[in-house]
Amino acid sequence: MQALAEAVRPLVAILLAGSSVAQSPAPAKRDLSKDKVLYCVGYAHLDTQWRWDYPETIGKFLKATLDDNFDRFEKHPGYVFNFTGAHRYALMKEYYPERWEKLRG
Questions:
Q1: What is the pTM of this model?
Q2: Cα four-point dihedral sign 7, 10, 13, 14
Q3: 25-56: string of b/e by CB count within 10 Å (b at 16+)?
Q4: Residue 66 phi/psi, 5° resolution?
């Protein structure tokens, strides 16, 4: 548990300070066969059928989630993001093809 706490400490410091990851020093090369590394992945659980209908999900929440994360991609090189399930990606491809292509990069 101590090793996990040490691995997370720089990330927590960045988040608490309000600094961007892009401003932090570049990570050193690691030997993944020996070094312990913690990877953090942004994640959105976009519930498409809970409190809103599909038009609202697609027109408001899907679009906002994409736009918010595209801003983070630009500000933080190496930022990684994931949706819950392939269906969200299919909706993005169908309704926001420009953003889909941008995501595919």
A1: 0.56
A2: negative
A3: eeeeeeeeeeeeeeeeeeebebebeeeeeeee
A4: -65, -50
Report how far apart, in Å, the C-alpha atoms of 47 and of each of 24, 29, 63 are: 34, 38, 14
Residues across the chain: 105
Q: Is residue 20 within 8 Å of 60, Cβ to Cβ?
A: no
Q: Could you give the count of Cα atoms lying within 13 Å of 100 in the half-sphere of its Cβ?
A: 11
Please, which residues have CB within 8 angstroms of residue 3's CB and are 6 or more apart in sequence? Answer: 36
pLDDT digits (tens, 9 = 90+) for 43-92: 777 777 778 888 888 898 888 888 888 888 888 877 777 777 788 888 88
Annotated domain spans of the chain: 39-105
Bridge-partner residues for 83, per DSSP? Answer: 44
